[in-house]
Amino acid sequence: MNSVLISGVGIAGPTLAYWLKAAGFQPTLVERASTLRSGGYVIDFWGLGYTIAERMGLIPAINRDGYHAQEFRIVDEAGHRLAGFGIDVFAELTNGKYVTLQRSDLSRMLFERISGCVEAIFGDEIILVEEKPDGVEVQLKHGGRRRFDLLIGADGLHSAVRKLAFGPPTQFERHLGYIVAAFEAPGYRPRDEDVYLIYGQPGRMVGRFTLRDDRTLFLLIFAEHHSVLPETPASQKALLREIYGGDGWECDQMLAELERTGELYFDTVSQIRMPNWSRGRIALIGDAAFCVSLLAGQGAALAMISAYVLAGELAMAGGRYSEAFATYEARLKSYIGRKQRGAERFAGALAPRTRWGMLFRNVVVRSFSIPGVARLAIGRDIADELELPDYLAPGAMK
Known about the structure:
It is a single chain. The chain has 398 residues and is α/β, with parallel strands linked by helices. The protein has a domain at 3-74 and 87-172 and 271-349: FAD/NAD(P)-binding domain (3-Layer(bba) Sandwich), CATH 3.50.50. It contains 13 helices and 18 strands. The strands form four sheets. Strands 5-4-13-14-15-12-16 form a seven-stranded mixed β-sheet, with helices on both faces. Strands 7-2-1-11-18-17 form a six-stranded mixed β-sheet, sandwiched between helices. Strands 8-9-10 form a three-stranded antiparallel β-sheet.
């Protein structure tokens, strides 16, 4: 029991490959994209994911490439401050283990830790899965048939492995009623360094965050009212123009930048709810197994936690996959369930559907500046009430 095929080179996949390699397994990564993805949205990274990154020796790079935001600020049409609070409250809640960084940067750092010592196949994907008594055979779209002892789906919300091995997405995907879009704009003005700026109308919001190299990130969240979502970049941009055109603040300026961008992230805000994360020799980790939703802000950390635990349980079980998969699920199920319930409560907080909801949100945000209030309001959702086992000796893989 040695060879493991991992589908997906995002966050969960490279993390799993790192710890499996450290435990003596032979992981192989396959990724549909031709290269590592760049750009995309920023994530708030904290807690046990941060702890795993420490064990992988990534914190110096994370602190170098990450951002230490100072303020969350809600503005009105004229750009005047309506509400806000200092981001240091999150650092206090996480004992200083908190940083903001681009998801693609974290993915790159993780991949660099295994580059050269793990086989990685880019520009290919799994199109057929057949489980055999002695392994799993997969058909790659371009690379032919290959056999592995285990197959792990780490391929995100729209997991191909989950679809092939467990069934259609409609069985497991739960829409939370919102759509999210993100893109970068070079040379945008004004720039507000280290500040999350949020502006909204009922049922929609736009956020702006300043990046290095004279780049600006825009994040758009709006209530889902369309039965059929646009699939092409042109139709997605058209929908965003329809929703945000003439909305005030910098929305028209933002839409002008949208027209010039060649990379647009666009997806539903959804959760994945599954009764089991494994079947036979096949298992799922990260968003493929239990996406809590992008708005929860914990997807990357949870992906790393699930990868670390699965690799550790496989090592502890000596490759007895049935035992390892069962222990992996037992250890994380209730923990992930709490995170999903918390994310569901948070789904409408950034883009309330009514003006009364927006006013209430602003009152809550203002209260975070009062000592102790943030801990009472969100401390339970921020806290990681899970003991992370030390499966492998520190420095097991350098």
